[in-house]
Amino acid sequence: MTQIWKHRLFWPLAALITLIVVNSVARPRFLTITVRDGQLYGALIDILRNSAPLMLVALGMTIVIATRGIDLSVGAIMAVSGAVALTVIDGSNDPGNLGTVLVAVVVAVLVALVLGAWNGFLVAVLGIQPIIATLVLMLAGRGVALLITGGFITTVNSAPFSYIASGYLTVLPFAFFISVAAIAALALVERRTALGVLTEAVGINPEASRLAGVRSRGIVWGAYILSGVLAGVAGVIYASNIKAADANAAGLFIELYAILAVVLGGTSLAGGKFSIAGTVVGVLIIQTLGSTILFLGVPSAQSPVFFAVVVVVVVVVQSPRVRRALGSMTRRRPSTTAPDQERTKVAA
Amino acid sequence: MSTTTTTPAVRVERASSPVESFLARHAAMIPSFAAVVILVLLLAGAEAFLRGDFITARNMSALLLDNAYLLILAVGMTFVILTAGIDLSVGSVMAFTGILGAQLLVSGIPVWIAVPAMLAGGAAIGLLIGVLVQYFNVQPFIASLAGLFLARGLAFVVSLSSIRVEEPGVLWLQQTRFRLGDWYLTPTGIIALLTVAVAVFVLHLTRFGRTIYAIGGNEQSARLMGLNVARTKVAAYVISGFCGGLAGLALTAYSGAGYPRNGIGTELDAIAAVVIGGTLLTGGRGYVLGSLIGVLVFGTIKTIISFMGAEQAWMQIIVGALLLLFIVVQRVIVARSERRR
Lengths: 348, 341
Known about the structure:
Chain A is mainly α. Chain A has helices at 2-6, 10-26, 43-50, 52-66, 74-91, 98-125, 130-148, 159-166, 174-192, 195-204, 206-211, 216-242, 254-264, 276-295, 304-318, 320-330, 337-347; strands at residues 34-36, 39-41, 154-155, 168-169, 172-173, 244-245. In chain A, strand 1 (34-36) and strand 2 form a beta hairpin. The longest helix of chain B is centred in the last third of the chain and has 28 residues, at 313-340. Chain B has a single domain (32-340), classed as ABC transporter involved in vitamin B12 uptake, BtuC, CATH 1.10.3470. Chain B has helices spanning 8-12, 18-25, 30-49, 57-66, 68-82, 90-106, 111-135, 140-158, 168-175, 187-205, 207-217, 219-224, 229-255, 266-276, 288-308, 313-340; strands at 163-164, 178-180, 183-185, 257-258. The interface between A and B is large, with 49 and 46 residues. Chain B: It comes from Actinotalea soli. Chain B: Keywords: Cell membrane, Membrane, Transmembrane, Transmembrane helix.
């Protein structure tokens, strides 16, 4: 039994399940999934679909945070990629053509890749603090997006493009498959190859890993490129969802929610060990909490208060001081003492 | 200004020319000097480009008036950044205290209660962040993120829409002009300048201020020296929160209303102004007067852009580019001084 609640996904999962239970009790329709024309609908399906942009951004953020970095520019990259995609579609003769949309998406993601590479260059090559290096693009990126759209909110009417966010692939939303694909690909690359271990090594001690022959520069650079690309895809999904490029609103605050999701999932902001499954659970917690707050009839503008409370509770529970207090409470049982101290060390 | 950041190792360096020895001794000041140079270049460039219509008494007075709230925020931010922390909450705190004050005034609460309540509200959020950072080992980024969410949400809890302020005492802060020829100064501008003056005094001439620099230089050493690190660090965040409250007052007076959407992204402007002013984000180096210059650079760019009728999008791009320039310059300076050691 102690094995289970020592697992690092225990608390995030417990929080998610609690939220789902509270929701199902408060509104019985929460768990209901209806089938219409062979497609599934319901509150849970909505959560899966709407979480796609945050999921992608948070996955990239997980890897960046694992290298001891942080990427504040993801929201701005989302805005740029959405603006690029819509400008390409808007400028073409045939907005409804699948080929046009494919070109637009590829161009948008490539631009996002370049922006991610720029962040990586500042951090990995010039050695600028990640928080400030990505702040540059966070400030300038929205300006660039505004210039691309000419200061207007570009709107398009393109069936293939809106399929990205609202369409269904067989029974489930297409956007859900995008996030599943991203999770699977990332888990495969990070956990079935040595890359994940090397990333953690760079995060735990950059200097030691460099001396051990790890090419930390390339790994850090790659992390920011990955984060940029995923943010670019997220930007396309966001733009597809509202069928418009809104340079000011696209991805606003998403960097903060993504960081929150990563922290909720048990990945330390100090870098090193990371958990992709934890981030997935973290994103689902945030999305479910948002849906709950909306259901409670709280104006969405006031929802940050709830998130603030969540952040404070999570960080206080994770803090060494509280861990120590909890540890001394459980110390009476000798069997749990050793792993407990180990955990405290990891958390510190 | 004092030069305590000069290390003995630097002084050992051979000083071949007066200029070189000056630069060596004042390495920490170079970024701030660079900011002054940029400001002068900007002003001169705008003056030349706009055929002498730019540097007028009215424009320069408006510069301080329009950016008084940002200056107050930047001063508070300087304290936090000097301790190697960061405070993302200031923009939201400004919105929260602004709308709180407006709501209190509209409900008929006298101004001598409403204004202290605003300042206390800001300081309370700062205290929360400081306690999380110091006593629960939360990274400043995350702790102040919680503060950002909390203040922004609370602003909307107070009111979902904007509230007009008709209290003469608050509007007096904005509408009064102390004139000297064509130059003028509003009470909000005076508050901002007083904030700078008090901050300069505190940072350079008090034990508390020197402790702030010591923490930013090396927290472990500061603790081993027996300095009261815990109290000082919490106080830095409280000061930043208090400045957020003061900025809320200045902005409410400036716009004549409280609005819960005020100040989205202003924390980034404040951080940018502090960094452009030559304060290192790694802590321990920088000057409040530099932040004043940073805010003036920021305000001048804004004025130039609106004069040229260019799109406001350029504002974000130019500030981003300037930020980049300054952090690269800082990076070089830090790398050079580390090599000296």
